[in-house]
Amino acid sequence: MIKFLHKLFKPNCNCKVCEAPRCEMCDRYEHMLEIEKHEKHLLLDSILMIFKPAERQEQMPVEIAPIRPNRVSWKEQRRIFEEEDRKRFQLMHEQEQDISKLEQELGIKIPDNSQNINNSEAS
User: Best label site of 39, 68, 89, 96, fewest CB within 10 Å?
Assistant: First the structure.
């Protein structure tokens, strides 16, 4: 009767009067439950750390280039192609000059293949 009245007037009390006798299995289950809760909490924390958005660094504003039209006129394409060809020719000319300078420095004389080709065509 005392337990009943005590629980009635103090429902959240954890005193010796309210405490029910506990067995060894109950203690084991309670301990296992605490371990599971702890592991669940650790797992949840690790998952949240993975998906946690990184601290944003202030990025410098990037200037957006204007959108070029998809179609380019033939005159524009021709001009672009001619510029590319000029650049390629200039690079090839510079490479030939570098090669000829190296040949002169090293004293190497390579026969000109264009003369051999012309002679073979004539025969």
Answer: 68
> Do the beta carbons of residue 6 and residue 13 sit within 8 Å?
yes
Domain assignment of residue 105, given as a range: 76-110
Residue with tokens 């280039």: 65
Whether 62 maps to a domain, the answer reads: no
85-101 pLDDT, tens digit per residue, is 999 999 999 999 999 89
Give the confidence band of 43 by pLDDT, cuts at 50, 70, 90.
very high
Q: Would you say residue 94 lies in a domain?
A: yes
- Asked whether residue 69 is assigned to any structural domain, the reply reads no
Q: In the 3-class helix/strand/coil scheme, how is 12-65 assigned residue by residue?
A: CCCCCCCCCCCCHHHHHHHHHHHHHHHHHHHHHHHHHHHHCCCCCCCCCCCCCC
Global confidence as pTM: 0.33
Distance of CA 84 to the CA centre of its chain: 34
